[in-house]
Amino acid sequence: MKHGFIKVAAATPKIKVADPFYNAEQVIKQIDEAQGKGAKVIVFPELVLTGYTCNDLFLQDELLEGAFNALKKIVKHTEGSDTISFIGLPYEVNGKLFNCAAVVQDGDLVAMVPKTYMPNYGEFYEVRHFASASEIEEGFYVECSDCSNEDDDEEDYSFFFGKTILDLSQTIKGFKIACELCEDLWVPNPPSTEYALRGANLIVNLSASNETVGKDSYRESLVQATSGRLVCGYIYASAGEGESTQDLVFGGHNIIAENGSILAKQQLFENGITYADIDIQKLNHERRRMNTFNVAHKEDDDAITIIELDMDREDTKLTRQFYGKPFVPADDRERTKRCEQIFAIQYLGLKKRLEHTGCKTAVIGVSGGLDSTLALIVTAKSFDTLGLDRSGIIAVTMPCFGTTDRTYNNACRLAETLGCTLKEINIKEAVRIHFRDIEQDENVHDVTYENGQARERTQILMDIANKMGGMVIGTGDMSELALGWATYNGDHMSMYGVNVGVPKTLVRHLVAYYADTCIVSELSAVLRDVLDTPVSPELLPPVDGKISQKTEDLVGPYELHDFFLYYMLRYGFRPAKVYRLALIAFDGIYDKETVLKWLKTFYRRFFSQQFKRSCLPDGPKVGSVAVSPRGDLRMPSDASSRLWMDEIEGLE
Questions:
Q1: Catalytic, out of 54, 100, 182, 359
Q2: Residue 612 a catalytic site member
Q3: What is the CATH T-level fold of the domain 332-649, as seen in this structure?
Q4: What is the pLDDT of residues 246-303, one digit of tens each?
Q5: Minimal CA–CA distance to 486: which of 346, 614, 298, 644?
Q6: How far is Cα 567 from Cα 586, in angstroms, rounded to an integer?
Q7: Active site includes 182?
Q8: Would you identify the CATH topology of the domain 2-308?
Q9: What residue segments make up the domains of the chain, in order of their start?
Q10: Which one, 289, 298, 406, 611, has least CB within 10 Å?
């Protein structure tokens, strides 16, 4: 259960219709198999002990007694195991027959949860056999004398009957499970809504949804959307092969989702067990972040009963994979779509600012690097959208001590192919005069040596903008701002920062996207050379004409920092959890020592450099993570990092 992860399973055994004892044997086999894989919650299909397709056999005492006696064998088999199993069967109480989910743990029948909505349309005819949970005003306990035959030990069985939430907060903070059955999910106001508003963050569904053409796609979208709307995990287990095919065929379409994403699903028409690792901690963070989640809830104490359960707090062996670039879709089509959307947000944001200010001139410092290249492309598109001549874009290249021929030539070629006005200002003499004024030795390549150049460039850009009646377009990206890898009041400052919401790992793909889609071959060639150039501020003298100062050698790989940033800000994960996920995501790429080294750097810089983010220029948010002090990150500049750094120091 470490870091809030719990392994869950949706299981579909091959059954025999109306043979509860055979079916119980298949259920037991799958319980054993799932437990062997570490599953702590196992969900079986609706009416799995009898088969969903028994029809009027549900009215036979023999079948009902057989189903409950088969359940007893399963209950007994689970002694000594803390795994919670949800098993479907028909059950009669107070003269009415209900379609139920039995909750079983450690040799105990904890509860029976009846189905609320009975479909009675199309191929479904459940009202003929079953009563609804809505006919029960409140839940109650059933004693063994109400449910056992004469040969059984009556003292062993006493369980709750009705709507319930299983509270496992002693195992994982805030962990609560609730259950609905099949049609309950498909209605306008499913029981899971009320369960979620009462705190349930894992919903299980025992289902027997038959297959028709296209139904699987709708079913997936329904489970996916429900998990997102309720900010919960959702386990959907459906009936499969073994049900009667007199009129219907069942596909065993098991689905496990988490907060709008499908984690795992069973191949259609293949019975089996589907596994996934649900992150309860992440779900709790999302609900805590969304202050509207509970706003409309009015608690009804009698409708749902809370039952406290516990599990061993053993570590969950994760099989879940974590993509190393959470800001960048792995799928080519999705990545292209993401680039199109972000590019549109960027250029439309700048378009509005240019319209509002009446500026017809934009000033950009171009270095031949990725960030300034993206900013220049965005500005060109904004000018096109406004019907402005691109000659109004003043692309300023300012070579100094660290500039190489490659980046200089790329900056010039980029401005020229885009039709901008290129202005070259060599700042060496101005910087030397400044060094003389502040008594800085030019041979001492310290932070003053570097920042003096950055601030000189910003001063020139600002003053040109004043002279031309334009605005300075910022080029710095979100990853640099998260790390504070920007010169305060140097490249840190602008009049509108178009890249402020774009992480470094995505900047590269945006430039590549434009290189792939632009129709000017010369421009595409320049962009590809920019993509091949090492990331560098070029503030230190080159060696043999090549870049000597590579950012990632100094501050660490941006793909690691973007990964850390995403899981820290988006989900509030603690350093130990971020570290654990990073080791999975970058297995075979970085060793443990490397990941830990840069994790320390990330947290240290993130906290110490907040003062730079507290006074950022305006710029558009493009994704779910942003560092604007006016929006997503309202953080004190002098917050202590002690708790985070202490935890990191204890990692191995």
A1: 182
A2: no
A3: Rossmann fold (3.40.50)
A4: 999 999 999 999 999 999 999 999 999 999 999 999 999 999 999 888 755 555 556 7
A5: 614
A6: 14
A7: yes
A8: Nitrilase/N-carbamoyl-D-aminoacid amidohydrolase (3.60.110)
A9: 2-308, 332-649
A10: 298
